Amino acid sequence: DVARFMNPSLKDLHDPFLLPDLEAGVTRLAAALESGEKICVHGDYDVDGVTSTALLVRTLTALKANVDYRLPHRQRDGYGIKPEALDSIAMNGCGLVVTCDCGITACDTVDRATEMGIDVIVTDHHEPGPELPKAVAVIDPKRADAHYPFPELAGVGVAFKFAQGLVRKLGHNEEQFAARFMDLVALGTVGDVVPLLGENRAIVRHGLDAIPSSKKIGLQALLKSAKFEGKALTAYHVGYVLGPRINAAGRMDDASVALRLLLTKDENEARELALEMERHNSERKVEQERILAEALEQVESKDLAHTRVLVLSNEGWNTGVVGIVAGRIAETYGRPAILISRDPMSGTGGGSARSVGAFNMLDGLRACSDLLSNFGGHALAAGLGLPIENIERLDEKINAHAAEVIPEEELAPRIEVEAEIDPKEITRKLADALACMEPFGEGNPEPLFMSRGLTVVQRQRVGDGSHLKLTVRGDGAPPISCIAFRMGDIADDLELGSGIDLCYNIRLNTFNGNESVQLVGKAIRSAV
C-alpha cells in the first residue's frame, strides 16, 4: 500500500468492466458507431462535467462517430439533464444520449426519452436516489449493487472508464488512449474535489505531468492565459488556478465556452476563448467578494451560540457563485453554511450548501425535504431549491436537526497540525520529502505544521493587498519567507521584532528558475 501510494501507477487502475452496466453501455454505443446513429453527449456546467463531455466527444470523434453535445445553462436550466432538453436533442436527430457527471437521479427524463424512442446511457458518480433510471445502462460506482473496488471516481473518471471500455471493445490501443486523455481526467478529478487516493491519486499524479505538455490547443491557451505556460503543476495549481477559470464560464455565463476551448483545434479561437474565460473569472471574483460581504453582515446578526447551521439569503446573489461563498463562510465559522439566492418574481430560491466534517449536509437536507422543491449532492456540498416562504422554516428545521447530531464542541474553530517542529528543521530535505506525498487534496491533505516564538523580520501586503508576505526567523535558524493568503488585513498588527506562533505548510517556491523553501501560513497568533 505504501509503495502504491508513493509511486502510483496507471497499471494499478481497475478493469473498467468491473463497473455496473459498463458492458451493456459499451455494446449499445458500439452499435451506434457501426450504424452511424447520431449520439448526444450531455454533460454538466462545472469543471468535472466539462472535462467529461470533452473526453467523450473527443473519443467518439476520433472513432468517426456522428456526435453532438449539450451542456445545461446554470441559470436557465439548472443542474442535470431535464425532460425539456429532450425536445432539442430529438430535433437534432439523436437516437442515443450519453450523460456524464449527471443523470443518476433523472428517472423522469429517462422515462420520457424512452417514450420518445431515445435510448439513454447514464455515466455518473453521484449518489443514486431510491430508484435507478430505467436506462440502457446506468454506470455509477456508487450504485448499491456495484462491486467496483474504488467508488470515489469523479464524473470524468467514470467517463474515462466508459470510453476505455469502448476502446478495448473496438480493438484499439488502451495505453495510447489513456496517454491522450490523462490531462482532462486529472483536470476534472482535482476540480471536483474527490479524494486523491487510490485510482484518483494515480490519475492526478500522471495527469499533472501530462497537462503542461498537452497537445490540446485549448489547454495550452488556458495555461498561457493563467501564466502557467511551460511550468510544472501541482494539484494546488489545477484546483485553484486552472479549475476556477473553467468553472467561471458556467458560473457567470455559459459553460459551453469552456467546452469549446477544450475541443477546438484552432489556435485563434483557443486564444479568444481563453481570454473570454479570463474575463469571466475576473467578474466571478468581484461578484464573490460582494456576496461574501453581504453574507458576513447577516452572520453578524445571528446568535452563533445557538446556531449550528448558517442559513443566509438575499436577492441578486449569483447562484453560480454562492457555493464558493458558502465554503468560505463554513471555513471561517467552523459550521455548515447554506446560501440562497431569492427570486421574488418566481417566488423561489436556489442555492448551495457547504458543510464541515461533523455534519452530513445531504442528510440534513433530507430531514427538511418537505420544505424543498429539489436538492442533491454530497455530505460536504449540496445544491437546493425551495419556495421563498420556506426559507425561514428551513433555517429552523435544519438547525433543530443539527442540534441533535452535531456536538457543541465540534463547532469550536480549531486547527489540527501534524507536528510542532523546531524552525531549524525546516530544510530543503524536508520540503523534498513532503513533495513526495503529492498530489495533495481531499483525502490526502497537505501536512500542516506549527512553530512557536518566531520573530517577525519583515512584513508587507502583496497582490491586491489582501495577501500577507512575511519573513520570519526562529532561534538558531536562518530567516525564511512566508506567504499567507487572504491575511493582508493583519499586516499592521504585526510589529517588526514581535513574536508569533505560526501554522504553515512547507513548499518549494520556484522563481526565475531558482528554488527555495517557503512557508504558506494558515494561522497566525501572538506568541504565547
Summary keywords:
16 strands, 39% helix, alpha/beta, five-stranded mixed sheet, 528 residues
Radius of gyration: 24 Å
Number of extended strands: 16
Q: Please give the order of strands in the largest beta sheet.
A: 2-1-3-4-5
Q: Which blocks of ≥5 consecutive residues have pLDDT under 50?
A: none
- Between the first and last Cα atoms, what is the distance in angstroms? 40 Å
Helix content range: 25-40%
Q: Characterize the quaternary organization of these chains.
A: single chain
Q: Mind describing the biggest β-sheet?
A: 5 strands, parallel
Total DSSP helices:
16
Mean pLDDT across all amino acids? 94
Q: Structural class per helix/strand content? A: alpha/beta
**Beta-strand share of residues:** 15-25%
Shape, principal axes of CA atoms: globular
Brief characterization of the structure:
The chain is 39% helix and 21% strand.
Please describe the topology of this protein.
Blueprint (H helix, E strand, L loop, with lengths): L1 H5 L15 H14 L2 E5 L4 H16 L3 E5 L14 H7 L2 E7 L6 H9 L3 E5 L13 E3 L15 H15 L4 H18 L6 H13 L6 H9 L9 H18 L3 H8 L3 H34 L9 E6 L6 H12 L3 E7 L4 E7 L6 H6 L7 E4 L3 E7 L3 H15 L13 E2 L7 H8 L13 E14 L4 E7 L6 E5 L14 E13 L2 E13 L2
Parallel strand pairs: 1-2, 1-3, 3-4, 4-5, 6-7, 11-12, 14-16
Antiparallel strand pairs: 7-8, 8-10, 9-10, 12-13, 12-15, 13-14, 15-16
Helix pairs in contact: 2-6, 3-6, 3-7, 3-11, 6-7, 7-8, 7-10, 9-11, 9-12, 10-11, 10-12, 11-12, 12-13
